[in-house]
Amino acid sequence: MSTIAPSYALTDRQRRIVACAREWITEHGEAPSMRELGAAVGLTSTSSVAYQLRRLRERMVVETRGRRSDRCPHCGK
User: Fold this and answer.
1) Which pLDDT tens digits describe the chain residue by residue (77 residues)?
2) What backbone torsions phi and psi does residue 69 show, to the nearest 5 degrees?
3) Any idea what DSSP says for residue 6?
4) For 47-53, which contacts have Cβ atoms below 8 Å and span 24 or more sequence positions?
5) pTM of the complete model
């Protein structure tokens, strides 16, 4: 298990988001959408998910790239 410096300690919610994203990528081969990630960790607001991801990016815990343009926004295929 890696150690995170105290000033960069993650909240429980942030740890859940990172764990969920890793599981999703393993299962689906790509990162979840904001809505998918929010639903998986119990957040109904995509702005709350965006805020948490922004904080995780600032701490260099996650990297985001945006959505693939060839994926249907309605069915995900």
Assistant:
1) 444 444 468 899 999 999 999 999 899 888 888 899 999 999 989 999 999 999 998 888 887 776 655 555 556 55
2) -75, -20
3) G
4) 49/17, 52/13, 52/14, 52/17, 53/17
5) 0.71
